[in-house]
Write a structure and sequence with these properties.
heterodimer, A: 448 residues, alpha/beta, eleven-stranded mixed sheet, ten-stranded mixed sheet, 10 helices, 21 strands, globular, B: 255 residues, Rossmann fold, six-stranded mixed sheet, 12 strands, 38% helix
Amino acid sequence: MSTALLEQQSETVMHFQQLFQEKEQKLNGQANAPLPRLQRLAMERLAETPFPTRRNEDWKYTATTRILAPAYAAGQEVDLAAEQVKAANIVCLDAYVLVFVNGVYSAKHSQIYGMPPEMTLWPVKDALKDDRFRPLIEAQLFHEENQVHNAFEHLNMAFAEHGQFIHVPKNVVVDKPIHFLYISETEDQPVFTHPQIIISLERSAELTIIEHFTGTVNAEAPYFTNVANRFHVAENANLKHYRIQDENMKAFHVNNTRVRQDRVSTYSGYLVDLGSRIVRNNLGAVLLDESTNTNFYGMYFGRGEQHIDNQTFIDHAFPHCESNELYKGIVNDKASAVFNGKVLVRQDAQKTNAYQQNSSLVLSPKAVVDSKPQLEIFADDVKCSHGATIGQLDENSVFYLRSRGLSDQQARALLQHAFLKEVLDFMPEEKVINASEELITKKFQGEF
Amino acid sequence: MLSIKDLKVDIEDKAILQGISLDIKPGEVHAIMGPNGSGKSTLANVLSGREEYEVTGGDVSFLGEDLLELEVDERAQAGIFMAFQYPVEIPGVTTATFLKSAVNAVREARGLEELKPVEMLRLIRQKADMLGIDHKFLQRSLNEGFSGGEKKRNEMLQMALLEPKLAILDETDSGLDIDALKIVSDAVNQLRQDDRSFIVVTHYQRLLNYIVPDYVHVLYNGRIVKSGDKNLALELEEKGYDWIKEEVAAGIPSL
């Protein structure tokens, strides 16, 4: 690392340490509760772990220096009107809703009544005090199977005050999706927030969650959403995970989601990136036993100077596992997108089926796509494929639509929408498809 | 309705149309025939608004407007419909979505209100029934995986919905079997009315047994070398194009 970078990083870490000490001083005798203890540990790790720079191959295209430059303060709750929350919500979706305003849980706007009594949805700080749950959480936080935790994850743990823990015992099917609605309502002070969801699904349990990030449009300063999620999907359990990232155009968003899957379990990620100045998603699944099913379906649309970086990792270590990965994206103006997807098929992972595809449309001469689908196979009896395509809108199709009276803009929007629809069609939840389509349509029309 | 005067068109500096004049009045059906490479499709494409053609001379006026100044979508809104020889396949856009967008775009341009979803659905279904199109088709991606006949039928459905003033059929009959041909012709015949005109570009006389034209024009080397009524088409069917080529070579006046 260059000295200039080192200096900037040590300044950043010093700033974080100062914030951390201020936070500690307010603990008033709670300093030895389990969460603050974990947070101190995370802070120590953060001091030892440099933030990745462009010299790290996996961070080559995304400058963390820009994300870390502002002097962030911790997010404070602001009082939102019910209409404001409603406007950010997904229309007609029947779900349990947890609302977070600037990272702070808002009981007032949330609706979590009526959940199956067998399951648990608790703040991480409370769940850590319970002997049943603490081991489950710690196992997820400290496992480092094949993946070293990065500085953003330590940062998240050090500052996450409103992390949520979900435990679904065996055979329990949660009847409605759990919708985590993160609203950033910031003004002229740069703010960072640390959303955290830790999920433990036991044998044959089923759950759908929706992570949903929005930000007010008129904010002066950037804000930084630094997410870290840990999901454990036990034998024959099924987790569906939607993410709608629609932050405002000044925001920075880093999302580290680590999934661990046991035998015959299914994880499906439906990942929509529309907002943020810079967004970096690390999504990784470690397959811990045979016959798992892993699906990553991602779509993104970048405009202006947006930068959208998707990094995925699927680690096949056991036989008969299947993974499907499809990411489709459009970049316009000066936007850039990165897809770096790695699928590792270890020697013992015979009979693996692994498919990976990234397709992009590049709509302007200054828009950039870097696509790097990687497949590393060490087993010999597998079915695997990977590919990347980068193209433009088909002008013949544009002409055809215009010859039926659609304006040039309408024709192009329809074709872009059709391109992304392939990904949306994988989503089982129609209301989420509709909400995503509505957001996409607004983006096509140039709304921010 | 449509008046073409001495139209000259190049593609990549090669003269394709070398001075075409044609006058089409409301309600008339004009067939344009001619051997391969005579410029038939070029004429159709220029009228529809394709950009790769360069108009080097002449005028085209449509309902009093300078057609060549209009963008392709403005032409559609003004009432020109082109049934393409090769309709484009568009995966991911359902036929229904496409038809709704097109109908509303044209209605808006013509100063009409957008149709409500229910009315739109009723209208599309009614026209689909008229053309014997299965409603399941409406949920499929536009033209994707459609047979040649299905694509042409879909073109006719669009024509029926957009209610053009002038419809241009560019070799719509090519490659169709007799059943598909009848469906296309039926659609045209049902839509024939006093204020709607048709240009039927075709290679084969057979279509004209079903769509009976008021005029038949023979295009050769970028010029209309002969015009007549439906009997001219029969004569061409019987004798081929060679006698016309010979007449042109001998300098016999065309009319």
